[in-house]
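**User:** Once you have settled down, spend some time on the protein underneath, comparing sequence with structure tokens, and judge whether sequence predicts the tokens.
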Amino acid sequence: MTTVVEEAKRLDPEIRSRADASEEGRRLDPEMAKLIRDAGLFGMCVPRRYGGGEATAREVVDTISTVARADGAAGWCVMIAATTGLLAGTLDERWAEEIYGADPRVVTGGVTAPLGRAERVDGGWQVTGRWPYGSGSQHSDWLVGGTLLPTEGDGRPDVHLMFFPADEVTIHTDTWRTSGLRGTGSHDISVDGAFVPDGRSVRLGSRPTADGALYAFSTFGLLSLGVASVSLGIARRALDELIDLAGAKTPTGSRRTLAKREVVQAQVGMAEATWRSAVDYVHAAVERAWEVGERGERISRDLRLDLRLAASNATRRSAEVVDQCWNVAGASAVYEDSVLQRCFRDVHVTTQHIMVAPPTFELAGRIQLGLIDDDPVL
């Protein structure tokens, strides 16, 4: 049986050949989405008991990176579906079986930001909200939306991820006009008075109902690793493209190709070292946390912080690598048919995601300086 990483490598030529169609359509190419769905990549974080792949965390990282190397938008959509699928390990078992168990090819997506509001009704909740950044919504069967639920006690509302059937969700298809990752189709999504039965939601921070090391990882932790994996894949593609270009391009006024220039050789070497060190940090942090999860223990604050730091670092370093490749390539990179210009645009969208934004480093600093003990976003 092939692994999800091997499946991602097998799909590489197909994904590359359809990247332009996704870019132009501002959504994942439907045929590409079908290929990825059939290969089991969207469901790789769903527990096996519901027909999912239940991959290792290392496989999740490497699969997303491999797909993003072929096309950043496709990698992003795999990341969104996979990390949403992780919720199957925390969802009420009845609803997990109904949503994920009925069809192993089911695709879930959505947005964790708590922009929805809910009112208590008989048997559940009536939810209204609009969420930007609904990546992959057009090929999803179910979509989640972060929603604030009123609570008693201290008065602070709980954040629940509410599950909606896709046909109950409005996709505002002219809201994703961006510089990069255009093919993700991250349009606004909304519901107006949608009924969500009791149990068809996941409270952020709740304990998993599924066993297995993968479900020891927090939603935010795996999401941040997913963003980093997309970034690493884009950076790897930029390096590949530069290496090919450097061997073929002779700059105007020169008799030597770019590859024969010492300064270019040094820049490529430094970019390669930057990329490899970022990958190694992510892998090391993931493996340390995985060992704890395999023992059935809770991943500690320090390990959760390490995962977030590794992810944020990888995203920043990936942008640096792409920028270096862009600068070395010169004017050749500015044309629309240059993959480098797409890598440049795409990676600078990944850096804007809140899970890998500069506040992560501030949080790490506060913890290391003893100003706070822990933080729920880890």
